[in-house]
Amino acid sequence: MHKFFNYLWKTLLGSLVFVVVLIAGSMLLELIGLHAPPLPSGADAETASMIFIAGTPLLVLSLVLLADGLMGWWSARWMILALFLWVGYGINSVVEGYLFTNISAVATIEGAAFTILSLLLPSFVTGALVVSLIRSGGWPPLFWEQLQKAEARHRSWSWLFRLILGVILYPAVYWLFGIIIEPLVRDFYASGVYELTTPGPLELIVGQLGRGLLFLGISLPVILMWQRNRSSLMLRLGLALFLVSGGYAMTTAYWMGWQLRVIHTVEILAGSMVYAAILSLLFAFPDRRI
Question: Which of 72, 87, 103, 162 is the least crowded, having the fewest Cβ atoms under 10 Å away?
Fold first, then answer.
């Protein structure tokens, strides 16, 4: 119970900081001429803002879950968490939104740029706060030392094979669960409701491989600097990937039908847990016992 409340107040404080910095950063972007894109069709500005703020703890929780298991100096842990949030939520949301929606926030260059840049400062400030609140135990190793240890465990060809697998297995997992839910969501995409669209085969393949590269890139530093056992890594990394890659978005996209949101939430959760397990088996140190 003590750990729960410890997580809770740190998550809520991080959420407040994230929202305040996001608002300030968005105002700064407006001043330099980069304007916020219009809201999706059916979304009300006041309601969307309230739900966004209420859901922000889900984003910060992803950092708290990971920070509690990371070792390393403050600067390394800060960069790992900040990039995890910014790339996993900000850049990934634009890529996924571009593939599957016509929403202005991702469908235009200006909208995509505003979305990505507006989340940059909040991600790094919130990451710094979380790292400061949750300290690493023991003598912190350098990131490069951990990277060298990891490289020594496998030959070059083995590393190349594992990295390729780490990228291509993301779309494989995505398509597996996508096939399972396809009969349940087909009509939503075919009708174009909620500004949904279906990309062409080539666009889909390239886009999902790109997302696989993004998620591998933000997950590997977490895996290298993880100080707990592998099962803990699978669980926490899976939950963190779920929260930034779609769990938060599905929770706050109130203008979409609840059926579609529930189906995609379950799909994203299952896919994230499986992908985290795959990455942990491919790259995690097997001798962590903390």
Answer: 162
| Alpha carbons 128 and 229: distance in angstroms, whole number | 25
Distance, in Å, from the CA atom of 63 to the CA atom of 85, rounded to the nearest integer, reads: 7
With b for 16 or more beta-carbon neighbours within 10 A and e for fewer, the 53-80 pattern comes to bebbbbbbbbbbbbbbbbbbeeebbbbb
Overall pTM > 0.85: yes
Q: Which amino acid belongs to residue 8?
A: L
Instruction: Please report, as a single letter, which amino acid is at residue 94.
Output: V
**Which residue reads 């978005």 in tokens?**
249
Cβ atoms within 10 Å, residue 281: 12
Q: Structure tokens of 281?
A: 């088996």
Poorest-pLDDT segment among 13-27, 116-130, 177-191, 268-282: 177-191
Residues 83 and 218: beta-carbon distance below 8 Å: yes
Distance of CA 32 to the CA centre of its chain: 28
Q: Which residue has the tokens 């929780």?
A: 61
Query: How would DSSP label each residue in 24-44?
Result: HHHHHHHHTT-PPPPPPTT--
Residue written as tokens 């634009």? 94
Q: Residue 226 pairs with which residues in a beta bridge?
A: 70
For residue range 113-139, what is the model confidence (pLDDT) as tens digits?
A: 999 999 999 999 999 999 999 987 655
